[in-house]
Amino acid sequence: MNRRNFLRNTGFVAAGSLFVPAFMKPLEAMALDELSLYKNLVVVQLSGGNDGLNTVIPFGNDIYYQKRNSIAIKPESIIKLNDMQGLNPNMAALQEIYDQGWMAIINDVGYPNPDRSHFRSMDIWQTGSDSNQFLSTGWIGRYLDSNCQTCKFPYTAIEVDDSLSLAMKGQTKKGIALKDPAALFRNTNDPFFKAMLQNDKEHLDEDNLGYLYKTMIETSSSASYIQNTSKVYQSKFAYPNSGFANQLKTVSKFISSGLKTRVYYVSLSGFDTHVNQIGQQGNLLKQYSEGIAAFLKDLKSNNKLEDTLVITFSEFGRRVEQNASNGTDHGTANNMFVFGGRLKKQGIFNPAPNLSDLDTGDLKYQLDFRQVYGTILDKWLDVNNADILNKKFNTLDFI
Length: 399
Known about the structure:
alpha/beta
């Protein structure tokens, strides 16, 4: 196979699991002592539209039980947080996290004129757009593009997956999708691949091939950096046996080994519970809670929890009233979770959803999700949120 056919047939550069953008390479030149100044952000996406009312349950409101006569969680099994709200019993692993002050719950997060399409609403959340605005870059990607003070070095973002979400794509810079650093390292150390890098420097000035070869060189360099940096750390912490927990274990390894990364992105799917919701959602919430609890405790044991902020979102909540199939249909506002060792306000951040004041059967949002993003951009990533979100959003006091 000649070199051009190799590039075309393997799709090496375009493959989401192998693509490493140009800005990764300079990370190798950064001094290790600069890492101590970094604050890590971990974004957790619950795909499918998690039912927030059966996650953080308003058991103190009779309307909840009237609207959900067969799928409401029984009061005696709820993990009560105050006189009004409590956690789903499958989230028992988070009770200790909540009690430690490492968790905040933000109720009724949404946006004006909400869209109930999975794809469109997810795009809105990932780009930080208005509901009638279509953006091709994500809010994290635009952060990577920015010239903020901490962006004097080209910081990066890693998604622990095979493909890159829109949230991670900027105009000039992108994050990297990566499940296994060892696999990326092996692929870039294939003898044929290495021979190409050694023998094809004459193509660097060509428009198309030049771009491909430069990207391959940077991919090889970055793969070596990621593998050699992360392999020195071996976690001794026990994680649950689930794909979601494994994603978080990988993130913990990267953080604890000193990998120079600001933002990590993980996801858990399956929350589109139109039918027989109780069992399906319960299993997912158990995976989520046990994975998050292990992750936070692991970070705490490595003195990394205070430098890490975790946020959880889903593209929308569900309707207040259950459907005829013992499930719930697409709704609007939802709760968000924030975890970390330096939360300014722990526990329940704002009032419970008002179930007696609905918008045609849906929750009315109290807070715009971009206020949450704006708070993180301003107070955690040290950049003016108006530069990233295209307008200024008031910040909140959870950090």
